[in-house]
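step=encode ok
step=design start
structure_in=
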């Protein structure tokens, strides 16, 4: 069978849900996977992250430039963590036959500090399962890089036995800096994973990657196995990514010995003293709601004293993530307009059971309170409910009765001259 047929069968076997934004060279692969087409790649990855929070495995199949649209949630997920495995299949086009560029997606894998695998004809089935296991072991997205030479090659084999692990979200006691430190401590273990992977075979001096033949074969291209430094030449499709990288051990700076916690730092940040939304967040806690939080002020719902936010994967991400997990997105007006609208459109078109709660203060509160565009100009089609932040009984009723999908826009004014409160940490 062709490489794209083998990969599609392996992806269907190893994952519970598949998403795609078709484009060369993965047009047929995405169709063979049965991938649900989404409005853009960022939304697709956010859906997959939502599946992950719900304990499901998910795959997103996109072309090389589509990976660019995924970068924000892709990088955020490395520090935030995940539960079920998430596979990002990147279809690279080194000759720019059907793409705007010939970019090499392995570079973005390095940026996001995620495991990157590039199978050849002997490894298509095994590499898909191995990538998902790596995603779960290291609690971050895993990338599978494919090129036309592999997709069109003749391959043999059969799907690998599915063997799920369980990832983990970052420790909620960590500060944001502590989360990054913890993720890089895990990154060090990725080097050991690459070094010991049975997908790599060592039989001679030359090495081949992907569909390029060689005496030795390397599948775990990032972090590159240390032994690759002994090989010459290194054959690969596209840029000499592995040849350039194999001379280095990719160990990030050690930083602190232990990730910084709120307790160790001694304080946490929360909403402004007179923030009109504090009663709303308290109500969500009383109602047992578990929102996925967006970037912006709403991320404070993950901190004490509320601790209701489940996860946050970056600007505009809460809608699609929540649509496949908790069913409640908590976002701000600016984040919604910045990059959440595409996901909201997709959610409505598919009738997904999402309640989107928008805290509308008409400004970018975390970055200087610059005025933002009135949100009602863009979401009238969603038939949103508009309510004042002080109308708690009505908000409670809407939380319980609003349609799913549905949008509740809660309006309030940021207090003049106030910033997020810094509160001394006490074990809660």
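sequence_out=
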């Amino acid at each position: 069978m062709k490489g794209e047929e083998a990969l599609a069968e392996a992806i269907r076997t190893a994952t519970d849900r598949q998403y795609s934004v078709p484009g060369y060279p993965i047009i047929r692969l995405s169709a063979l996977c049965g991938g649900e087409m989404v409005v853009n790649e960022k939304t697709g990855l956010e859906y997959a992250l939502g599946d992950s929070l719900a304990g499901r495995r998910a795959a997103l199949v996109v072309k090389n430039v589509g990976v660019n649209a995924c970068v924000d949630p892709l990088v955020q997920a490395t520090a935030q963590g995940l539960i079920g495995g998430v596979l990002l299949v990147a279809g690279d086009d080194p000759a720019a036959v059907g793409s705007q560029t010939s970019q090499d997606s392995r570079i973005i894998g390095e940026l996001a500090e995620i495991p990157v695998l590039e199978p050849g004809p002997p490894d298509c089935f095994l590499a898909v399962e191995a990538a998902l296991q790596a995603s779960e072991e290291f609690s971050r997205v895993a990338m599978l890089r494919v090129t036309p030479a592999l997709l069109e090659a003749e391959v043999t084999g059969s799907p690998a036995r599915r063997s799920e692990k369980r990832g983990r979200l970052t420790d909620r006691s960590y500060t944001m800096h502590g989360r990054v430190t913890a993720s890089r401590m895990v990154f060090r273990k990725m080097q050991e994973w690459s070094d010991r992977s049975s997908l790599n075979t060592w039989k001679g001096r030359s090495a081949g990657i992907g569909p390029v033949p060689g005496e030795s074969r390397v599948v775990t291209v990032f972090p590159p196995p240390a032994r690759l430094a002994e090989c010459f030449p290194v054959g690969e499709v596209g840029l000499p990514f592995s040849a350039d990288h194999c001379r280095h051990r990719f160990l990030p700076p050690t930083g602190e010995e232990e990730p910084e916690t709120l307790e160790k730092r001694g304080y946490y940040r929360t909403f402004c003293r007179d923030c009109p939304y504090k009663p709303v967040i308290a109500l969500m806690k009383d109602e047992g709601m578990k929102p996925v939080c967006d970037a912006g002020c709403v991320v404070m719902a993950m901190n004490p004293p509320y601790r209701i936010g489940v996860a946050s994967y970056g600007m505009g991400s809460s809608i699609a993530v929540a649509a496949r997990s908790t069913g409640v997105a908590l976002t701000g007006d600016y984040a919604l307009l910045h990059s959440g609208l595409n996901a909201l459109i997709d959610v409505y078109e598919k009738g997904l059971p999402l309640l989107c709660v928008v805290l509308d203060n008409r400004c970018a509160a975390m970055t200087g309170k610059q005025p933002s565009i009135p949100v009602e100009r863009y979401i009238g089609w969603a038939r949103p409910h508009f309510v004042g932040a002080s109308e708690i009984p009505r908000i409670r009723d809407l939380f319980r009765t609003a349609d799913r999908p549905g949008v509740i826009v809660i309006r309030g004014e940021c207090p003049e001259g106030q910033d997020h409160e810094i509160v001394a940490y006490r074990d809660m």
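step=design ok
step=annotate ok -> The chain has two domains: 3-245, 266-424.
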